[in-house]
Amino acid sequence: MRSKDNTFTVKKAEDSSGFLLWQVTNLWQREIKKALVPYDLTHSQFVLMASIHWLTLQKQNVTQILLSSHTKIDPMTTSTVLRTLQTKGLLQRKEHLTDTRAKTVGLTDAGKKIIKEAVQTVESFDTIFFATLCNKTKTFNDQLLTLLGQKK
Q1: In which region does residue 63 sit, left (phi positive, over 0), alpha (psi from -120 to 50) or beta (all else)?
Q2: Cα separation, 149 vs 25, whole angstroms
Q3: Average pLDDT, whole number, for the chain?
Q4: What does residue 67 show for φ and ψ, rounded to 5 degrees?
Q5: Model's pTM, two decimal places?
Q6: Where are the beta strands (DSSP E) in the chain?
Q7: Roughly how many angstroms between the first and final C-alpha of the chain, as a whole number?
Q8: Is 63 helix (H, G, I), strand (E, B) or coil?
């Protein structure tokens, strides 16, 4: 018997985009967490390290603000995670060449070794996880970019 309370606008939970996104995100993050166990990295640590590696390969001076903007992780969390990575010996901070208020961040040799292996693991997992989308992956990514406000 159906309740007469009209709290929800959807008839089935599966009609709620937000609920579905939450479920998929949780499933994906749970599996990524397992994949990162051998590297002793949290998902946030992985994302920041991978982003440092990516941006460095793009010939950018990587700063905390750039990382926060690139990853969409708030600046305070970015700072906290970077401090942890520095304590683990995976990251180093240096004076910025032109901005005396900023510091650049870079991976240590140990950090580079770990992130290169972890990226391969995560990319392999992503390939398998998103394989069910078949030839719709580009469309899916375009839709995610739209939600992020990066594509119109």
Answers
A1: beta
A2: 19
A3: 92
A4: -60, -45
A5: 0.87
A6: 91-95, 103-107
A7: 43
A8: strand
Residue type, 65: I
For residue 92, what are the β-bridge partners? 106
CA atoms within a 13 Å half-sphere pointing along the CA-CB vector of 51: 22
- Cα distances (Å, whole numbers) of residue 32 to 8, 20, 42, 109, 124: 32, 18, 9, 24, 11
Q: Which residues pair with 107 in a beta bridge?
A: 91
Which architecture, in CATH terms, is 35-147?
Orthogonal Bundle (1.10)
Q: How far is C-alpha 2 from the geometric centre of its chain's CA atoms?
A: 40
The string of pLDDT tens digits covering residues 64-96 is 999 999 999 999 999 999 999 999 999 999 887
- Name the nearest CA neighbour of 85 among 65, 112, 117: 112
DSSP state of 40: T
**What gap in Å lies between CA 90 and CA 46, rounded to an integer?**
11
Task: Please list, residue by residue across 32-50, b when 16 or more beta carbons sit within 10 angstroms of its beta carbon and e when fewer do.
Answer: beebbeebebeebbbbbbb
